[in-house]
Automatic annotation (TrEMBL):
Belongs to the NAD(P)-dependent epimerase/dehydratase family. dTDP-glucose dehydratase subfamily. The lineage of its organism: Bacteria, Pseudomonadati, Thermodesulfobacteriota, Desulfomonilia, Desulfomonilales. The keyword Membrane does not apply. The keyword Kinase does not apply. Residues 4-306 form the NAD(P)-binding domain. Keywords: Lyase, NAD. This is dTDP-glucose 4,6-dehydratase.
Amino acid sequence: MKLLVTGGCGFIGSNFVFHMLESYPDVSIVNLDLLTYAGNLENLQDVTSYGERHRFVRGDISDPDMVCSLISEKPDVVVNFAAESHVDRSIMDCCAFIHTNIRGTQVLLDACRQYKIPRFVQISTDEVYGSLALDDPPFCETNQICPNSPYAASKASADLLVRSYHKTYGMDCVITRCSNNYGPYQFPEKLIPLMITNALHDFQLPVYGDGLNVRDWIHVQDHCRAIDLAIRKGRTGEVYNIGADSEFPNIEIVKHILDRLSKSHSLITFVKDRPGHDRRYAMNAAKMRNELGWQPLVDFREGLNQTISWYIEHEMWWQRIKSGQYLNYYEEWYGSSLGGAATKTSS
């Protein structure tokens, strides 16, 4: 199987690249990533052992010429992880979110239609559904999408585009919507890695509002296994929710991290709440479980403790991100500037 993976240098994308290369000796991957601030080639340092089964290409999914040049190679599946994904950044300026998440998805869809690619998989998010009350049942695939942030609105727009290309042109498309991910290589602006890395240096841990916003957490490896199944077994035109039934208030996560690191709860600082902050997300993944035979394998408490240990053991990785040094890794790898497109196999 030949895959074109977009956004494969990000947190979930890089974990997915490793999952597929490790699981299937017949899989080869072209990894298209623009290397914006959250795309980090250091996430893929260990991919060199897979040689020419992995090829990195630096480029923008919103660039039709770049996209068509890769899709003309006729991958069996295009998996679209590429997205601007941080809600706070979308509140400050949503232009990049419109460009990448909507325009980029449209460019990919047009190229896949032109070259008759067998399957397109859109990686979406639970945030397209909006917010739940504490006593509401979890989101099902039949729930109306009702996004409350510019980021969520851009992802919902992309989902609707994907649906329309399936309905209008008969394209084989599948959409997955997952709950909050955690695990290794997550960019340290997100809740769990931010709290871990701040606590390790005794910095303040900023918590929005009262800290009682509830999220449904899933380990990134469980998410990658679910995407794998959606690629291979998902029904065309369908949406699949992915969640691990691990709902916790943010403040409980933060306190567990502090306790695990033997740090004082006095490091917690409550800050002004985010505008339009969704109170609760939860996903009903029964369709994923029943149709595709998927189930999460990583217990949340165990997975969180493993994640804390990973950040302790990989301090150089996240210190380079916080200092901005990781942005130089492309030049170190290629011996060239960041300007223009470039490709490199892992050999």
